[in-house]
Amino acid sequence: MKDIPFEKALEKLEKIVAALEEGDLSLDDSLKQYEEGIKLARACQQKLDKAKAKIETLMKKDEGLFEKEQFEQEGD
């Protein structure tokens, strides 16, 4: 699950959510889809956390040194 690209994982997750919302699945199929959705959601969150860590900006100081500054999202 970790090797799946973020966009593909999100697309699969959206399809699972749509199928669950329709309510046409059996209980067993709903549980299987839910489990798959949880795995995909966790994989997406891990990828987002990793991307957020990479996005931490480096600010160049006057002396030519770099300073790490925490990336802040809107609403944080």
Blueprint (SSEs and pairs):
Blueprint: H1 6-22, H2 27-55, E1 57-60, E2 66-69
Antiparallel strand pairs: 1-2
Helix pairs in contact: 1-2
CATH architecture descriptor: Orthogonal Bundle
Overall pLDDT level:
83
Biggest sheet details: 2 strands, antiparallel
> How far from one another are the termini?
28 Å
Beta content: 5-15%
Number of domains: 1
Q: Count of helical segments?
A: 2
Radius of gyration: 19 Å
Give helix % range.
Answer: 55-70%
Low-confidence stretches: 57-61
Strand runs, count: 2
Top-tier CATH class: Mainly Alpha
Cα shape: elongated
The CATH topology is what? Helix Hairpins
Biggest sheet: strand arrangement: 1-2
Structural class: mainly alpha
Q: What is the H/E order?
A: HHEE
Explain the overall architecture.
The protein has 76 residues and is mainly alpha-helical. It has a single domain, classed as Helix Hairpins, CATH 1.10.287. It is built from two helices and two strands. It has helices spanning 6-22, 27-55; strands at residues 57-60, 66-69. A two-stranded antiparallel ribbon has the order 1-2. The chain is elongated, with a radius of gyration of 19 Å. Residues 57-61 have low confidence and may be disordered.
